[in-house]
Amino acid sequence: MRVAVLTVSDRSFAGERPDSSGPQLAERAQALGSAIVRQAIVPDEQARLEEILISWADSGEVDLILTTGGTGFAPRDRTPEATLRVIDREAPGLAEAMRAVGLRSTAHAMLSRGVTGLRGSCLIVNLPGSPQAAMESLAAIEAVLPHAIALLQDSSAAETGHHPRSRPKRA
How many alpha carbons lie under 13 Å from residue 52 in its C-beta half-sphere? Predict the structure, then answer.
């Protein structure tokens, strides 16, 4: 997979705080065999975020965009709104899985407004800004990401990932 990592943070963009989440996500994606093709830090500005998401997703060079930050309740947290404006279709199961896993660690996980969706053949995933929460969220979905990307690319190999579960027989 070709992965882009976008950190959304006013303070990290201004150099007031180091970006911890972005580099950790990039490192994990590489450990899973992905190539990091883009990485940037942007302020919490919805229009700018939309511009970058569109540019990266439409470039044909990125299969997966991981955003980190801007998913909470603070007034400038606008990552979900930007994502919703640029995607063609939502992928709510991924966001639901991330929140479910996060709830095992903290009740604050239910405050995440992160969304996931598709723009063309690119998957966009909003992760929390906290390094621990971002990594837990990625871990919750990482096993299905290669299959999701294969499906988006309409790869014939994607169908090999479908294995029906055995169902218990009814009495």
Answer: 23
pLDDT tens digits, one per residue of 61-115: 999 999 999 999 999 999 999 999 999 999 999 999 999 999 999 999 999 999 9
Residues 171 and 162: their CA atoms lie apart, in Å, by 27
pLDDT tens across 3-30, in order? 999 999 999 999 999 999 999 999 999 9
Phi, psi dihedral angles at 62 (to 5 degrees): -130, 130
Domain boundaries along the sequence of the chain:
2-156
Distance of alpha carbon 158 from the chain centroid: 20
What is the DSSP code (8-state) at residue 43? -
> Which of 2.60.40.10, 3.40.980.10, 2.40.440.10, 3.30.1330.10 would CATH assign to domain 2-156?
3.40.980.10
**Contacts for 106 with CB less than 8 Å, ≥ 6 apart:** 133
Written as six digits, the tokens of 84 are 């919703």
- The two tokens of residue 63 are 């299969």
Contact of 96 with 80, CB cutoff 8 Å: no
